Amino acid sequence: MRPDSHEIFGRRKSRNVGLGLVLGAFVLIVFAVTVVKLTQGVSMEGFDHQTRNSLLPAEEE
To answer: What is the pLDDT of residues 12-52, one digit of tens each?
Structure first.
């Protein structure tokens, strides 16, 4: 009997494949969200608790 033919290795492999698929799906979701945010065309500036003049509405004179 080969040492890799035990049933626990089969279960471990299927769990690893499942975990790999979940991790891959998570990476794709994060990538998709990043692409959508970058292609929206809005001015995205960091939120550091400072007033950003570029985000305020334009005042008419």
So the answer is: 889 999 999 999 999 999 999 988 887 875 555 566 656 66
Distance CA 10, CA 48 (A): 50
Residue type, 50: Q
Helix, strand, coil percent values for the chain (each to nearest 5): 65, 0, 35
Distance CA 31, CA 25 (A): 10
- φ, ψ dihedrals at 27, nearest 5°: -65, -40
Q: Tens digits of per-residue pLDDT, 20-31?
A: 999 999 999 999
Question: 3-state DSSP call for residue 47?
Answer: coil
Neighbours of 42 (CB within 10 A): 8
